[in-house]
Amino acid sequence: MENLIQLVNKIQRACTALGDHGEESAMPTLWDALPSIAVVGGQSSGKSSVLESIVGKDFLPRGSGIVTRRPLVLQLHKIDEGREYAEFMHLPRKRFTDFAAVRQEISDETDRETGRSKSISSVPIHLSIFSPHVVNLTLVDLPGLTKVAVEGQPESIVQDIENMVRAFIEKPNCIILAISPANQDLATSDAIKISREVDPKGDRTFGVLTKIDLMDQGTNAVDILEGKAYKLKFPWIGVVNRSQADINKNVDMIAARRRENDYFSSTPEYRHLASRMGSVHLGKVLSKHLETVIKSRIPGLQSLISKTIGELESELNRLGRPIAADTGGKLYMVMEICRTFDQIYKDHLDGVKPGGERIYQVFDSQFPAAMKRLQFDKHLSLENVRKLITEADGYQPHLIAPEQGYRRLIESCIVSIRGPAEAAVDAELKQYPTLRTELGSAAIESLERMREESRKATLLLVDMECGYLTVEFFRKLPQDAEKGGNPTLSLFDRYNDSYLRRIATTVLSYVNMVCATLRNTIPKSVVYCQVREAKRSLLDHFFTELGKKEGKQLAKLLDEDPAVMQRRTSLAKRLELYRGAQTEIEAVAWAK
């Protein structure tokens, strides 16, 4: 059973190293789930003397006002033999055999965190004491509750201390050690008052009565110790601490323990309670109870740890892998990012992910709609037809059909198709590559190149229609008996309106035939030159660009947000803590 307390000690120290000491956190906190014993009491309640009696050493700072200004996590380790020594977590390789130096280090470490302003901090100090004269036990010594601020302290110090103490003891896994002096009215006890607020039934509160030997003559604390004055689930324990005179004379702690036992066994009022009184008995009771509570909490701890490991792994996966340290690793990471981007891009095109349907919308809706909006009637108005036909005839009117006029009319109409055709290319793939920095730039550069090739090919289709007219279309037209011209009229009034309308109708029919052809061929050109090419060679372009990068440039490519890097590091350390705790707890669970 002793290894249960050692297990909790180890996890608590690891939690503190990560900055997890029970404060509000966005991450699950293992500290709050660990059973602990918090020592609560007002100033001058004898709290420090109780702790020193349990340890058997003078090691806590003393003085007027608020001396304890940071939580002290006191971990006691029973050893079989050897010299007693102490270790601080913040000084891992230093052993203290002089406990006066321990006292000084507690004061110095408090000042390092809080400064000399006499303010408080919730960041704990971890102190481990190894001795043959202790039981395996962990206690958290909290700042003493006070009613007034001393000189040099902010007015809020009273409420700040109360809030800190309450934050510790309101957690359901916290065992409360409430220290109250017997020479004061129990109803005014700061420890009992705040304990009652968070544990009204007294199910997790141990009452400790100090200064019993200093009570007024003719009074005693029997009603309190027997649970009649204020009932708790666990029996009250009375202790007799060293007096200030004893402390000044450096009275040996072992001798003080003997004198404490003699007091209870020789005082008639307390003789029947002597077997469960004293600091030695208090330490044993607390150690046994802490072990029992830890044992009962193991299944819950295992469940919490398993759940939290899953959450941490999930968030780490979302943040991505950490950046490799070497150039080869960086290159591999960038290549993997390129592959991922390329595959996502293909998935959008192929319909695995949404986005590819927009290409079809361009071909099926936008491009045909743009073609319909072309105003061929402007090109084929009677005035324009007459103008182009007569210009094409020159000084000599045509004999059968105005071939050059037809060509000019058709070319002027088909050239107007270049706008919608080019717009169909521009509407394609510009929006997809939105990856940041170099990857985005490389993708956009490559896609721009493909877009330009697609634009050229598409416009070439339009120009081909302009460059060669389909003769068969005109051969199937009914031949004019006469050209319809009147040579006696002026050059610009040579042809009648019906003849010109027939020409315009013929040209419009031909242009519509060309439009129908281009509606089928332009999408093919775009897909072949741009979409298909992007799927085939985008990744090759990425790799070609990567091959030009040096180590420093690769590192710059992977220069991610420092906040993300810090978050990933924090999560990785926390995950390591939880996995280690899981292994330790499972080993203890199997050992049971």
UniProtKB/TrEMBL annotation:
GO cellular component: cytoplasm; membrane; microtubule
Highest taxon in the source lineage: Eukaryota
GO MF terms, alphabetically ordered: GTP binding; GTPase activity; microtubule binding
Residue ranges constituting the Dynamin-type G domain according to the UniProt record: 31-299
Domain GED intervals: 500-592
PROSITE patterns: G_DYNAMIN_1 (PS00410), G_DYNAMIN_2 (PS51718), GED (PS51388)
Keyword set, alphabetical order: Cytoplasm, Cytoskeleton, GTP-binding, Hydrolase, Microtubule, Motor protein, Nucleotide-binding
Record InterPro entries: Dynamin, Dynamin_GTPase, Dynamin_GTPase_CS, Dynamin_N, Dynamin_stalk, G_DYNAMIN_dom, GED, GED_dom
Record's protein name: Dynamin-related protein 5A-like
Organism: Senna tora
Biological classification of the source: Eukaryota, Viridiplantae, Streptophyta, Embryophyta, Tracheophyta
